Amino acid sequence: MNAPPGVPPPLRIGGVTIDPPLLLAPMAGVTDHHFRLIVRRIGGVGLVSMEFLPAAAMVRGIEPVLRKLHFTDEERPLAIQIYGRDPEEMRRSAAIVERLRPDVCDINMGCPANKILKNCAGAALMGDLPRAARMIALCRRELTIPLTVKFRLGTGRTGEPLNYLELGRICEDLGVDAVTMHARTAKQMYRGRAAWEHLARLKQALRIPVIGNGDVRTPDDALRMFAETGVDGVMIGRAVLTDPFVFRRTAAALAGRHVAEPTPAERLELIRTHFRWILRDEPPRLALHKLRSFLGRYTHGLPEGRALRRRISELDAPEQFLPALEQHLLAHAASGR
Ligand SMILES: Cc1cc2nc3c(=O)[nH]c(=O)nc-3n(C[C@H](O)[C@H](O)[C@H](O)COP(=O)(O)O)c2cc1C
What average pLDDT does the structure give for the chain? Predict the structure, then answer.
């Protein structure tokens, strides 16, 4: 079957081909090495991204942050995202990224968290475009790999108009290879709906590729975002948390194919693999935290998922998780529920 009309070709960011043009959003506390690999192995994703990493800690060599920079070739194409307030510090962290040679370096200008905004980083840079421009120019000079910038519609603060078109043009003029826009203001955080009409406007204003982001939960949403806005790529975030198979179904929909839903056995195998990696690689306290949060999300839609989540919230040793999960699944398979 042919791809439906209106579906864009593979996305090119600098010299890197992103095929299909579907991107895993950077998500702090979620898109670590293990999760990126899980999403990659399921398939259908064109580019995966690390969670944002603080430039200040990178240039000071803070160990837990340096550890987060680990990736393997199986994850490629892969973006490393950096954030900070000081253009010079950002330049130095871009130099570190360049040496690691991921496929893309991404600058975060969209984070709305108060802790980040107070420090004049993330979306606060949309309130100080001269500083944003200095930062982009310095990072660009450090990098031979493609550079992208991820931002929002604007700060949303009173008296500050939406300025994404201005920031988009600055990016283009300074040699940025593509931009991603989450179609909300920083003030909105995640409230309201993403205003996709602004994605269409940004796409019309720029020659470099535009990646659209915000409220894509299903393959149909992704097709609609491509068709309604003309964006070159679609980035998906929160939907992947409970449904890591969403990329596989969306890629199939883009190609005009249908794929079967994952079987319960496939879901279980995925959870088992992820858990084994966490138990192997993480210190016990962090392992416990990660097992709880990932299992909490993965069990959405499983039979009696709520009872299982209650049970795992009571576990206090990482090695108890897999047996608890397996017992639960066995019990519900046996009772036919
Ligand atoms: C738990 C969580 C962590 C996030 N961390 C980051 C981050 O590190 N860098 C970033 O640019 N955006 C981050 N975001 C925003 C997402 O990348 C994305 O822009 C946003 O969730 C909107 O897309 P969605 O509607 O598909 O979720 C985060 C979002 C969530 C839910």
Answer: 92
Residues with CB under 6 A from ligand 1: 25-30, 51-52, 81, 108, 110-111, 150, 182, 213-216, 236-239
CA distance 316 to 291: 11
Give the position, in ligand 1's atom list, of the atom nearest the Cα of 52.
8
Question: What is the rounded distance in angstroms from the CA atom of residue 218 to the CA atom of residue 222?
Answer: 7
Closest approach atom of ligand 1 to CA 150: 11
Is the torsion defined by CA of 137, 138, 144, 150 positive or negative?
Answer: negative
Q: Whose CA is nearest to atom 31 of ligand 1?
A: 238
Q: What is the pTM of this model?
A: 0.95
pLDDT above 90: percentage of residues in the chain? 74
The pLDDT tens digits of the residues spanning 224-244 come to 999 999 999 999 999 999 899
Q: What is the pLDDT of residue 327?
A: 86
Rounded Cα gap, residues 127 and 131, in angstroms: 9
What lies within 8 Å, CB to CB, of 173 at 6+ separation is: none
Among 105, 238, 247, 297, say which to mutate for ligand 1: greatest number of ligand atoms within 8 Å of CB: 238
Question: What is residue 332's DSSP assignment?
Answer: H
Residue 333 pLDDT grade (very low, low, confident, very high; cuts 50, 70, 90) = low
Contact 110, 79 (CB under 8 A): no
Identify the band that residue 336 occupies on the pLDDT scale cut at 50, 70 and 90. very low
Instruction: Tell which phi-psi region holds residue 182, choosing left (phi > 0), alpha (psi between -120 and 50) or beta.
Output: beta
Q: pLDDT of 116-149, one tens digit each?
A: 888 888 999 999 999 999 999 999 999 999 999 9
Query: Which residues are catalytic, by number?
Result: 111
